[in-house]
Amino acid sequence: MPTAIDNASLPSRSKLVNVDKSHNLDILPRLIPRKKAPPQQNPLPLPPTPPLPPPVDPQKLHFHKPTRRILSPHDYEIFEASPTYSLILSFVFSLSQAAADKKISSTYQDEASDAIGKLLSVLSAVEEIITSCPPADQGGSRFGNPSFRDFLDTIAVESPSWHSLLNVQSDSAIVEVSTYLHNSFGNRARIDYGSGHELNFIMWLLCLNRLSILPLSTFPRLSLVVFPKYIRLMRKIQSTYYLEPAGSHGVWGLDDYHFLPFLFGASQLLHHPYIRPLSIHNELVLEEEGDEYIYLDMVRETMASKSVKGLKWTQPMLDDISGAKNWEKVEQGMRRMFVKEVLGKLPVMQHFLFGSLVPAAEGMSREEEVGVNPEEKEPEGGEMVVEHNGVKHVHRNDAWGDCCGIKIPSTVAAAQEAKKKGEDSFRRIPFD
Asked: Which residues are paired to 384 by β-bridges?
């Protein structure tokens, strides 16, 4: 039987591990609480809402058909410093603020406006024209349908009577105001649509405001009733005539066609009690609340128009924005984007139209001075080059261009053609 080990014969712990405790304490790093990193500041200042000037006296205006006046970087610099630039900012941001914290259905309780009803009637009349101008058979092509030109031509014929209904008094005023409406549905030659055409619709409303037809009291219903009806109308036009995205960024943009619904929609949700930016990934929220909130409706329609499931694959910018802390951050970001990506882009603004209600500043170029044809007279499928003060403006329908990009089919057209073939399901990205 083994004998027990005498504890006294074992070396002490201090002898086994000879540690200089004082030295050890000196080499240990001191624990310092980690400081919270300061919040990153956005380098772009938040654009303010300039005061909206009072309506103008029509008797003091010389109405004429609006034309392009931003034909060079110098022209844009003049425009950016002009009262018209502030007027556009003021009107757009005022419409956005009018939608703040309001459901679409809440505006139905507002006092009925005769002007709002007439605007809705005009949009309904435009929708009826789609039926009378059916798309031509293109044999499965996903590019713009030429019947779109018949659609626009019919609008041009009917437009004077619509504006008489809206109490636009003189023929010259009707010519000026109706030009913005006519150019808010897309480009006749290129059969495309983009944020510039959307801006034309807003300028049409601005012209009516300048003529005292749409006072400030109508702004909530303009933002939440008239504008959503216009967006729904445009979806029908886009899916019927396969309008190509004008200068689309594809998956790197908010949407292939529109921008302002995201600004107005973010304003709607500013202080919502439970819908957060991340809620756009919840299909139940989109289904239940999409009819009340423009932002959610746009996300819902964007997802439905894509053949691949998942915002992170089709619209990664929307996916990134959903990580914002609150809707105030989203709304502020949309304001900055409008200034930088719409008003701040020469490829967009060189198509902008100036008349007497939305006037150009002194010193801006004129189309006739630089030998430029009006945009509606650009040759179909041809090329137009404008060189003035060192800038080239190129339209070409079969190649890359300096302003309008490559001719590409829309995802709406792809979805419609897939439905015709019975392919009505999403394609999933592998490993998603």
From this structure: 395
Tokens, residue 291: 């009819």
Sign of CA dihedral 315, 319, 320, 325: positive
Rounded to whole angstroms, how far apart are CA atoms 301 and 229? 14
**Cα–Cα distance between 326 and 304 in angstroms, integer?**
25
Neighbour count for residue 217 (Cβ, 10 Å): 12
Q: How far apart are CA 275 and CA 163, in angstroms?
A: 40
CB 290 within 8 A of CB 232: no
Q: Give the DSSP H or E segment for 353.
A: strand 353-354
Q: 164-179: per-residue pLDDT in tens?
A: 999 998 999 999 999 9
Name the one residue in this structure whose structure tokens are 């800038």.
391
Quick: pLDDT tens for 13-53: 545 445 555 555 567 777 777 777 776 777 788 999 999 99
Using alpha carbons, select from 253, 261, 201, 211 the residue that is nearest to residue 411.
Answer: 253
DSSP code, position 222? I
275, 245 Cβ separation under 8 angstroms: no
Work out the burial of residue 96: count CB atoms within 10 Å of its CB; fewer than 13 is exposed, 13-18 middle, 19 or more buried: buried
* Residue 305, Cβ density class (10 Å: 0-12 exposed, 13-18 middle, ≥19 buried): buried
C-alpha distances in angstroms, 277 versus 139, 167, 332, 417? 42, 41, 13, 32
Token readout for 113 is 């406006």
